[in-house]
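User:
Note these tokens:
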Amino acid sequence: PRPRPVFGHGTQVVLAGPDGRDELRLFGCYHPSRRNVNTGRLTRPMLTAVFREAATAAGLPLPGPPGATPGSGRGDGPGA
């Protein structure tokens, strides 16, 4: 696409689909590498926010509150 999209965590770019009518949304997200996590460039809330935005854009139901562990019914993270 022109102009070329600029990357940023949490940014969205809407692209035209192959038929020119449907749209494709591209979400920018930092890679969850050890370096990005340890330096604080990417936090769990940041990653969760991008996934929630993408799910909403796709019309998918959102799971419990942010930070909730699937199936635990609680929001205190893994191993709860």
Notes: The longest strand covers residues 12-16. The mean pLDDT is 82.
